User: Fold these one by one.
Assistant:
Number 1:
Amino acid sequence: MINFTQHKQTFIIIFTAIILLELTDLIWKDHEMVSFLMHLGLLLITMILLLFLIQGSSSTSRELRNSNKNLNDIFETLDVAIWSHDLKADHLLITPGIEKLYGYSLDEFYRDSLLWRKVIFPEDECVLNERKEKLSTGEPCTSIYRIIKPDGQVRWIQDRGIPTLDEKGEMTSFTSVLFDITDRKESEDQYRSLVEMSPDIIAVISNSKFEYINEAGSKLIGASSPSEVLNKDVSEFSDSKTVSNIKEKVSNSFVGERFEVKVFRLDGQEIEVEISIMPILYGGRTAIQLVGRDITERKKAEKTIHHMAYYDSLTDIPNRNMFKKYLNETLDTSSDQPFAILFLDLDRFKVINDTKGHSTGDIILKKVAIRLKQVVQEEGVVFRQGGDEFILILPNMNRKSVKLMANKILHYFTTPFIINDQEFFVTPSIGISMYPEDGREEESLIKHADKAMYLAKDAGKNNYQFYFAHLDKASSKKMELETGLRKALELEQFTLFYQPKIHLETKEILGVEALIRWEHPTRGTISPIEFIPLAEETGLIIPMGKWVLKQACEQSKAWEKQGVGIIPVAVNISVRQIKDEGFVDVIKEILAETDLEPSRLELEITESIMQDFEHSTKVLTQLKELGIVLSMDDFGTGYSSLNNLRFLPIDNIKIDKSFIDDIITDTNHVSIVKAIIDMSQNMNFNTIAEGIETEEQVHFLKQNSCEIGQGYHFSRPLPPKELEMFLRKQV
């Protein structure tokens, strides 16, 4: 064996050629070895310079010593070692760099030429067999393995072996270039670990084919391993539009920009993936690095949230949020093209909700939504505003077309809804505002349609009304009325008038009916026709009704104490009072406070209690057990049926004034009044006629066995003092 220092010149000449050849090969085979190639480049340049120095035979011995020293310094600073073994001559040449790489001295290597094998990490010894087999064919071989240094440190070595074979194919010499690639290898391992452990898809695409994909990516698209995906065309996993979009973003340098694509799994399932792309070099070629994550569940959640935000959970039609969004979009694009907003409110729906329960009410609301969509079809959009209110937008419609649609809706609602074999008749009141004449922005159009809807309610329900300018004044008046009504009780603006009930044969006063009046400080006397429906609507009828009951009972007791007589008093009771849970207790309390005999209190109810027959029967039975007289007021105008009427604990039936008005001239009304009187007698009810104004009406009623009546023919409603005088005159 020969020492490196003794044959330095020869060594350089031999290995300069080797390094030139290997440098090119390394560049093309591993583009990530830039840092190491920098060392090689430096080494190569140094060697070339030294060759020039060596060739200069005229150089002085001092220059040669300096060159040798420089060469030694270079080899000692580089993490590179060169190992050359002439197998025939058994000459071994080793550069000093091996000491730094392996941690052993040159002498130790020269003494034991197999030392380099003895320090290889045990798990990497298998690499040597593969290496030996390849070198035996005369091909260069690059091996990567770990070594254990004397201090126990483990380092990664890249070993590039170059064999020389003779004519018989036997190896005559062998050269290795050794690098310490620990930093690079650890960095690569860390990167690979991050890539493989990442829950996101990481892939490299070149020429539209997958060159690399991590485990998460292969599972994402339904492959059992990455090998199933490699070399497959991306068109197998997405549509042409998506592929074109990716190529366009790469060409336009949308580096790092996130965008969403649809991906087809191997099982055909479609998923949504959010990706970002970046052009890279991979294996010396241009490629695309793709990083993405499965957002299918997130997109589903977003769709669910969007649906919850913009669609009604009960009827599954667009809600008020979607209505506002749609309306504003329509306003932005309308260009004065007319369209209509229809505001629908279901008539008497609250009664159904209260009597049959919310489950039945919910079913009806669902059926209403379906029916509205069937009517409108493609001519408009149906929204649920909330509660029993719906809104329709009818684009590109003039007033004539809107009328046709409104009539069509009313016609569709003439058919009852069937729930559990029971029929429910639900009708809509419809208010209509037109764009642009009734408003050019969202708030005005909705407000005006709402006002028109209330006009439809006031007009008897189950009809439609267009908005007109005077409605604003009417709405303002109603608002002022409501504000005043809330203060009227506190400010003692209510009074009671009393109208006598007369025995038609004897003219005896049998009692009085208490009628509330509102004396407004600026508007004067306000008719009950104006404020009673408003009190019903706002719920003020509950405290107002309690006040009326107490005042009437106190007045009856006062007349008794004053010696005027025992005067029973009748009070009108609202269906909302009947529904109030504490109503019976209120009656008991008032009777106890006023010390009035229950038989002297008559409660007049309307036929609307039939809508909650079960609850009403229960309340009326409790009142009857107290000894209170019960009358059915305005009979014949509402919901009564003879079948239900016979189960109610009532004493009297009052024939509505509308039938009495024309009993002399209208044969139909004559027949109705006779039928009511006959029915009352057969069911043991007393009959009371309201609104008697002429002696001819009195004569007819007496002839047909109606014994009790009231009306202007006998007396108009009077304040307490005037009624007291009227009573005294009758004594």
Note: The chain has four domains: 4-182, 198-299, 311-468, 487-730.
Number 2:
Amino acid sequence: MTTDNLNRTPEVKPEVVFLGKILERVTDGRMLVPEFQRPFVWRQRDMLDLLSSVLNGYPIGSLLVWETDGQVSPMSRVGPIPVTPRPKGVRAYILDGHQRVATLLGTLMFHDELENPQHDVDWKLYCDLEAMEFLTEPRGGLEPQHFPVRELLSTSGYLEACREIQDKVADHKHAAKLLQAADKLANAVRNFSLPLITVSEGDMDTAVTIFARLNRKGRRMSPDEMVSALTYKVDQFHLAKELDKLLDDISHRGFGGLDRIFPLRAVLAAMNRDIYARDFADLLIKPELREKLPEAVAATRQAIDRAINCLQGWGVTSDRLLPYGLQLVFLAEFFRRCPEPSQEVANLLQRWFWVTSFTGWFGGVNSTQARLALAEVRDLADNGNLDAFKQVNLDQPALPFPSRFDTRSARVHAFLLYLASLGPRSLRGEGHLDPGALHAELRSKALSYVVGSGLPSELQSSPANRMYADRDHRGQALRALAQLDDPVLEQVLTSHGFPHEAREHLEGNEREALIKCRLEHLIDGERSFMCERGVQMPQHRSGDPIADSDESD
């Protein structure tokens, strides 16, 4: 920060404000949500719990807002409600409390004439006046005791809802009881107040730093959204949106399910920053670092594109086939520094990938070891050093064949790369399947059971009892295989890693023998696959997989 910025000490003013007044400030454009905030992400249960706290008078936390007369781009909606900023004067921007304010504004003020807000929640909530519980519209339809939350702050709407209770409930005592509960509900909402902390006189750096420190713990923001807040400039660069564009680009290539943390780490690598950085407020509040972000993101986008080209050449056609997301980070940094490696260097890089995949290297190291390994990849890229790898021992034996099919295991992902390399054919016998596209669309359901049930547990859960199937296939694959005739059946079986003798077991409905013979054939075939890629053989034929992949279903 500059000396001028440091001299602009913020003034902090606490007050207690009625809920209705806060919502009024939002609707008239005096209180806004800055664009660097993440969008509305609360679930239905979160919304119902918040309303329950209001009804019972429980604290829901304070709101923190930043007052400024400067121009800051706001969100056009708060929850489902369109908001127009006041044209002139001081505005307050919510730094902490967006999800709560959006919930209260949306549930208390959303009406049918408003445009669909594109959220995966129902804003039309009701309070069961008998149970005094909040709920969405019941499947059996609305009853007189279901009071619409959206009418609680509107005098005319509230009176109309009360008249409906009187008209529909014949029992006067029951109607009076419901009206008494409605009065209690309305008073609870109208009299509810919460602490409002206003920060003024500070500059943008002060505001986003406060915002970042508030959101440092828990899962309130994703790391890229945090960095976006810290690097926010009006009408300029917004990191989260740039990463959205990047993920949209690579989604067409099968990598759209990649966790957002990995492109962010690739950007940090491109800036020569720590890829495991956590304190983004300290890391990126410096203007000289913020100025480097656009260039770093552009370079990272090109590097990730080259890395995916390389991965696809190795048969990795989906993020679900990639054993570790960090492999893409390391490869992107390599190709950022060395877009066109020599054949020798490219061959060594390929061996590095297969060794780290089959040995589960990234699953067994700490952040310090990973940083040292990244330095080795940079050395290979910058200097063509064929002896660069020390952290990654290229002669380390592979992990054994996984005894269970567990998509949380990177070793299972490595096995799937071998299975995909066989060119699996459609179970209809026509053409080949596209494992990458199947994973991108169906995730872990891209593979079907060969035998649905009835096997010993160690065979039922074995990878040998899974195979790629057509996207519209339902049930066990055994039935589809049994319907195929020669020579199509032989071709299909071979393409899915079944040995020649599997056909006899299939025809005799010998299910256990079928999976056993395929298991041994897959282990041998995968070992040959490893050998061709310079990976040392495992010391054991089979072993329990470790849940160590970057993502899980």
Note: The chain has three domains: 1-221, 222-383, 401-543.
Number 3:
Amino acid sequence: MSPLLLPILLPAALGLAALLLPGRRHGTSSTLAVLGALGLLGSGLAILDRREGFSRPWLELGPIEVEFALRVDGFSSWAVVFVGLLTVVAALYSAGWWRGRGGAPGRHAALVLLAGAGGAAALLADDLLTFVLGWEMVTLALFLLAIAGRDDAGAGAAKAYTLLGVGDLALLLGAVVLGLERAGAGVAQPWSLSGLAAAPLATASAPTVAAYLLLLLAAMAKAGAMPMHSWIPTMSTTTHAAVMAYLPGSLDKVLGIYLVARMSVDWFVPSTPLRYTVMTIGALTILCGVMMALVQHDLRRLLSFHAVSQVGYMLLGLGTGTLVGAMGGIFHMVNHALYKSCLFLGAGTVERETGTMELDRLGGLGRTMPVTFGCMFVAALSISGVPPLNGFASKWLVYQGCVAADEPAMLVAALLGSVLTLASFVKVLHSVFWGARPARLDGARERGGVGMPVSMLTLAGLCLALGVFAAWSLERFVGPAVGLERGAGAALAGERSTWGPLHGPAPAPALELPNALFSPVAVTGLLVLGTLLALGVGYLGALRSRRVRPAFVGGELFDRERHRFPGTEFYRTVGELPWLGRALALGESGRLDVHEIFRRAGAPVVELLRRGHSGLLQDYVAWCLLGTVVLLALLFWS
């Protein structure tokens, strides 16, 4: 058996066992989920940095032969390992999440492993139709996970499946257009991705531009870029945090941006208008997503809009058409999956112990939930782009990509997005952990076994490690993704670097960055030294004895419930600004939601089709016969 099949078959087989074996108790299903995730991670490590392929023909359409083809290279091998790591974290957290909650842990474990197997199949695919197959497995697992365990999950899951279905249709149409275009040019295997990478297509003709835009639309729907984003905030309020952390928060982002990276680096040579299209979508996604997050009062929706906003950095970096920008976009894909998963898992722990996600009703949990607070604090600083964490490292490369592409407006949008993200998470940390604690939350503690804290600590530790040692990550993982085998971390390691365009020979020189360097190890040392000095000063100040007395207001004892100031009041005035407030209100109402716009427009057609569902067998047979006649007529005419 080819080792390329193991990352797909191992989790799929153990997932099927978790679903079908009798006695699907919590312990059994959790064990199978962890074993399947470890199998995916281990088999991914076994093919790390290998270069080999596997193919079997499975369909012939005249002169065109369709294969089930897999191939591993420097990019896909690391991506599979990363998906395996995310699956292990999701399985460990789910083991604690389901403890004592009832429900269907066996079904949850099976679907998590199915999603991991589908992600591995898509990442290892060497054929467009194989890629579509793995992509669809992840979409199906997302829908089934979204509707499991909650009675109010139907609307959010339906919306997610509708928008993802549009993206999947675009992916299939793009694959067909691309395959027909290459078949017309005499290519023997028109859907081979390695063959396409060997001779990237110039986006000069209408079919290639259409194929690029269709694939881009599919990636936008999967990753959650605007305007195909609305399924993520809607689904977040009706779906378990463990599901949000694994699929919309990480795995879907990885697949969507992986597709954009392959398109922009390997399969096509994007023209200037297409690059500007990708950059514009990225900049608008950054700003619109973070502004919507800034005014949210529900922690799940706030994190969901930040998940949308961060996709903009990935698209912006890849759209610059420069090596440094592409490296930043791909590195941000990895970093986002880590810190966003950590934030969603932390939010799930808070909800599990407090029963609410409303920021107005939370506060003061930093002392009673220290692990959750510490992990979410690290992840919040990382998503805000604070050095020396991994979010800053990848954003720094995106900034340099904007400079290298001579796009100051895009640079300003990226910087403004980081500032507003930090402002938003100041509100989150104050509302959940720093503010006054409501009396009803005095008994909130971290429970659920070791799986939940271990998974969060792992993600927080990786956020720190990939920031401090960013150069290693760039050289081993991101460099091969853009065709660089070594030295890709020079810009962060403190060396003079020249970054050219992705395609074609670079002008001499493309761009030198002697004054735009960042040494994460040195910065980390300075931060640690400053922290130790601050702690020393604080300790010396605490040596003085102090008396603690209750506070009085107007002669009455201070009531913490009456005088509690939630963090949601920080930016309430943003929604009251004349033009911005109206735009945010439109976004909250759904009147700018693509799904809602087309739903209202298509309501008459849907109603007409509903009336055609009479429930009579002869009517359905008649419709089938009519459709068959129409198809035969079209085939005869063509």
Note: The longest strand covers residues 52-61.
